[in-house]
Amino acid sequence: MIMPLIYTVFLVLLLSCISCRSKDSASTANPTTDYLNQQFVIIFDNDDASIKEVRSTFNDIETISIGSKKIALINLNQRDQGFLNGHFEKSRFQLHSVRQYEASEQIEDLNANELLPVSDKIAKEKAWTLSDGHGVVVAVADDGIDYSHEDLRDSVWKNPGEIGQDENGYDKAANGLDDDSNGYVDDHMGWDFGRNDNDPRPEYFFHQHGTAVGGVISGQSKRESGVTGVAPGASIMPIKFRVGRRWTSLDILRGFKYAVDNGAKIINLSYDIDAYVGDEIFAEALSYVYRSGALIVNSAGNKGLKNPPRGVFDELLLVGSTNNDSTSIDESSNFGDQIDVLAPGFVRSTVPNNSYKNFTGTSFSAAITSGTAALVWSKYPEYNREQVVARIIGTTEILDESDLISTNEFETGVLNAYKALVDLPRLSDLSFLSSETFNEGTLIKILIRGGLDPSSIVRSRFTLFDSSGQSVGSVRLYRENKVGSNTIDLFVESKLTSGQYMLSIEGIVDAFGRPLLGSEPTALTKVVEFTLE
Predict the structure, then answer these.
(1) H-helix or E-strand containing 239?
(2) The pairing of beta strand 429-438 with beta strand 441-449
(3) What is the pLDDT of residue 397?
(4) Distance CA 214, CA 417 (A)
(5) Is 6 left (phi over 0), alpha (psi -120 to 50) or beta?
(6) With 179 labelled, which of 86, 134, 341, 432 sits at a CA distance of 20 to 30 A?
């Protein structure tokens, strides 16, 4: 009996070491080629006519309401698939596959003497004199949280509708009832969307990512060697979507919806979501959260890439990491004009079984940013999401210009928790970034520095003039601006030739209603001049 036990322990330790080999702390995700149980969804308007039409086609479906839309889940076998594909060619509905993703955690341990305290880099202890994040719920969408950890048990969110005693004197957390009628039984500390149960703890002791992220956000140290997070007064809501090494986009949608519907103001998603581009279900999940006014914070990634694919998701904040002393962007961090803010990526945090480790990567930079957002929202509960973000990115410490030119090529700053609470954000500014000519016209990208009010960015406020002062073509917005947009994309319905141009912008304001830097006070007019070669 002893030898098999030794072999079992050896195998588990070997797997644990393999999972901790690389420097990229964000878990990578790739869609598999096969559909999970041939499962599809239809995304349609949440109105009586559409619901009736869908139900008349399928007898047994499950639907999820996401605001103004519904998602119908359909399980197909090979015989049904051919019929349905033919049917939907003549229908206004479209089938979307439920993508399956696979992860391998990639975390590097650091020697203790290599690590500089996060508090020295972002002034979090000074910030605690003004706010500790109390009253703000941060959902941690990850591989689970060990909520029994002594530094986390007081920080983990408790569902007020599932604690205490029911009318029969039974513990609501374990009475087998959906006491708060939110669709989940005994969800007293979040939910496991992979296994569909109320235990969102990690499955294995080497699943440490979510527990570490949670500690960075809201750990409450119970010993001298413990971990105190950026916002120790905030509550962290465990949203577990990973089962083993896999999950689906539908798990993520359910998790995001649960988080928002149960009061989360911030969702920390420290995962590589590059492979999610083009996933309609994930896009709907982002849209639901965005419409609610909540903030999603995502890690920028650790491959040293300029403008990674996930930069197309303007509904969220992308966070890159600095090196150990926060003097420059870390060489492994993704960078570019799509990155919204930088934060330290070298941390010490909690892991299961009341243990601690040192980690590095943008996963933890995102967690620091989520914690900072909780500090701001706690001090200014009347703020909307855009104002919280403006406080963070508008009070950053800009890195050395030479470093920006050589590595980042974009004026991204390092967040400072204390300054985000006390300083007014810098006035936002706009400048020419790039242009691209197509047969139909010219695409112009205007770089945004600072946080704008997206609702003030409308087509009628842009006019383009050539060097003679003549208006050039019709200008329209190429895409909608959101909280994570770092450019205003304008399409000029005319092929622009070489020469000088002047873009007149009227009435655009920042998240606090202030005019742009350099605007004329009377008309709030900003002029951006540029030359095309």
Answers:
(1) strand 235-240
(2) antiparallel
(3) 86
(4) 18
(5) alpha
(6) 134
Contact 412, 321 (CB under 8 A): no
Question: Can you list the domains of the chain with their CATH numbers?
Answer: 33-98 (3.30.70), 109-422 (3.40.50.200), 429-532 (2.60.40.1220)
476 three-class SS: strand
Across 148-157, 392-401, 463-472, least confident range: 392-401
Q: What is the pLDDT of residues 289-339, one digit of tens each?
A: 999 999 999 999 999 999 999 999 999 999 999 988 777 888 889 998 899
**C-beta atoms surrounding 426 within 10 Å:** 18
Query: Closest Cα to residue 114, out of 442, 357, 381, 377?
Result: 357
Distance CA 278, CA 53 (A): 26
What pLDDT band is residue 77 in, cutting at 50, 70 and 90?
A: low
Residue 381, helix vs strand vs coil = coil
Q: Report the C-alpha gap between 348 and 126 in whole angstroms.
A: 19
Q: Which of 158, 168, 155, 193 is nearest to 367 (CA)?
A: 155
The amino acid occupying position 32 is: T
Element (H, E) at 100: strand 100-102
Decide if 322 contacts 118 (C-beta within 8 A).
no
Task: Give the pLDDT of residue 400.
Answer: 59
Q: In angstroms, what CA-CA distances link 502 with 223, 411, 530?
A: 61, 23, 7
Note the residue count of the chain: 533
Beta bridge partners of residue 527, listed in sequence order:
504
| Residue in the structure block whose two tokens are 């009010």 | 453
DSSP state of 233: T
What contacts 193, CB < 8 A, 6 or more positions away? 239, 240, 241, 247, 251, 252, 254, 255, 258
Instruction: Kindly report the backbone phi and psi dihedral angles of residue 177, in degrees, each rounded to the nearest multiple of 5, phi listed first.
Output: -120, 155
- Dist. CA 66–CA 63, nearest whole Å: 10
**Is the pLDDT reported for residue 110 higher than 60?**
no
CA angle 253, 257, 262 (to 5 degrees): 150
Contact predicate 336/409, CB 8 Å: yes
